[in-house]
Amino acid sequence: MKGRNKIYTPLILSIACAIGLILGARLNFDPSDELFSANPKKQKLNRLIDYIDYEYVDDVNTDSIVDLTVNKILENLDPHSVYIPKDEYANVTENMKGDFVGIGVSFYNIQDTIVVIKAMEGGPSEKIGIRGGDRILYANGNKLFNRGISNDSITKQLKGKENTKVTLKVLRKGIEDLLTFRVKRGKVPLKSVDAAYMLTRDLGYIKINRFAETTYKEFNDAIKELKKKGAKQIALDLRDNPGGYLSEAINIADEFIKDENLILYTKNKSGAIEETYAQREGEFENGKVFVLINENSASASEVVAGALQDNDVGTIVGRRSYGKGLVQREMELGDGSAVRLTIARYYTPTGRSIQKPYNNGNESYFNDYMRRYKNGELNNEDSIEVNDSLRYVTPGGKVVYGGGGIIPDVFVPKDTDSEKEKLTFLLRGGYMSRYVFDLLEKDRKYYNSIPKSEYKEKIEISQEMIDGFDRYLRQMGVRVNLNGEEHKPLLKKYLKAEMAQQLFGTNAFERYLNEDDRIIEKVIELSQGN
């Protein structure tokens, strides 16, 4: 028997191992999976999912359970640690890349036909002459109209690998035959610099909508052009900028801060500190800079504003910023999804954290705007709550505060006219965009023939256009009073700005929108020493 045991024991062990491997494969276990970790908390979660997967009485989509579990875990950490599901990951990544591969058009699907709103600046379609109002009827011989095709399906047909070609058949008003365009798919810029132009003879203006992969390059190109036009001062507009890549914000701050001065530092869980200093001679170290912020300027926007303020560089103008001082790192979860996990806090050069409290839960945190609105701080500087224990002093002797956002050097109250806020919502919410598109379609040939230099004089927003917009809103179920005389100038300005955007792009849009802007008027006043 002893001899037999010596023979059979290795055989039995081999069979057991083989069975284990087969079961592991069938149950989708990975030998490196955390199920085999000694950590009982990880074992508990993995075992629960496996029990539901293989033993629960009904079929259950455990993927959705995992997604729900991940979201609930992150919700209990902080407001900015977030889960990115697999089906959203590509869009999220593309938005921050600064470009995508395609033909480069924005479009509406009108009566089952693709109608181009605008060929994107710098994209393949613009380069070969596709215009707003063109109807794309065929792509590589495939019919794209009267088929009930979703926008996602249309986009898939127009997008593709870089340098591949697509043949488009296009109907253009006023031309009887279809036009043929052979478009080589290429990188289409998703610009983060919305506008760059001169406000006065000496003062240049740059607006950044987010900090993406290409933001610093776009900013650098813009500031060089403005210097050529005579800019000795810069208004850097970071209002409503939610942030993005920290590295891009650091590079932009470096353009204004002298070498070897601290831009920010981060501190992680273990207390390890990583400091970042200005490293090169910037384009505007010797110029005057104004940074425009408001209650929606967050994260990377606050890095720039805080670095300049704490180094006594320039002037921060506007209202207290959002108050996000947490640093996230994106980590892939192995199935195409990812998590952006908070890994550190960042601090401005004087040592202040500008992260607002989140100990009362996410709902309270994200409703902080209403608290600020009710306590009056949006229209009265004296209503801004500060904590004297978080008082800091810059090298130049300026008093600054931590504990929730960057408080501007020069406060400009918010225009709290409720009707104006509604009009702004209509503009930003896309209602004006579709109405203006329909306006342009009535005489596309005329509007497309107007040079940008003549637009301001040639285009007048009439009462008929205003009445038409009112009717359009009513059809959409939106009720806003547009008949008040006091709001007509603003409404005309918004409609004209939206029309300029569809014809000429975001630079023209921001230029018209910024007329009579309170914060910009204050910056111009400050720049002139008044």
Task: Describe it.
It is a single chain. This protein is an alpha+beta fold and 530 residues long. The protein has three domains: 99-189, Roll (Pdz3 Domain), CATH 2.30.42.10; 193-414, 2-enoyl-CoA Hydratase, Chain A, domain 1; 418-525, no CATH class. It has 19 helices and 21 strands. Strands 3, 4, 5, 6, 7 and 8 form a six-stranded antiparallel sheet that branches. It has a six-stranded mixed sheet with strand order 10-11-12-15-16-21, with helices on both faces. Strands 1, 13, 14, 17 and 18 form a five-stranded antiparallel sheet that branches. A hairpin with a 2-residue loop joins strand 3 (105-110) and strand 4 (113-119). Helix 8 (246-254) runs parallel beside helix 9.
Q: What's the topology here?
A:
Elements lengths: L1 H25 L13 H16 L6 H14 L6 E3 L1 H12 L1 E4 L2 E6 L2 E7 L4 H5 L6 E5 L2 E2 L7 H8 L6 E7 L7 E6 L1 E4 L3 E6 L4 E6 L6 H14 L4 E5 L8 H9 L7 E7 L4 E5 L10 E6 L6 H11 L4 E4 L7 E7 L5 E10 L14 H5 L1 H8 L15 E3 L5 E3 L8 E2 L6 H11 L2 H12 L1 H6 L2 H7 L4 H13 L12 H17 L1 H8 L4 H10 L3
Parallel strand pairs: 11-12, 12-15, 15-16, 16-21
Antiparallel strand pairs: 1-18, 2-9, 3-4, 4-5, 5-6, 5-7, 7-8, 10-11, 13-14, 13-18, 17-18, 19-20
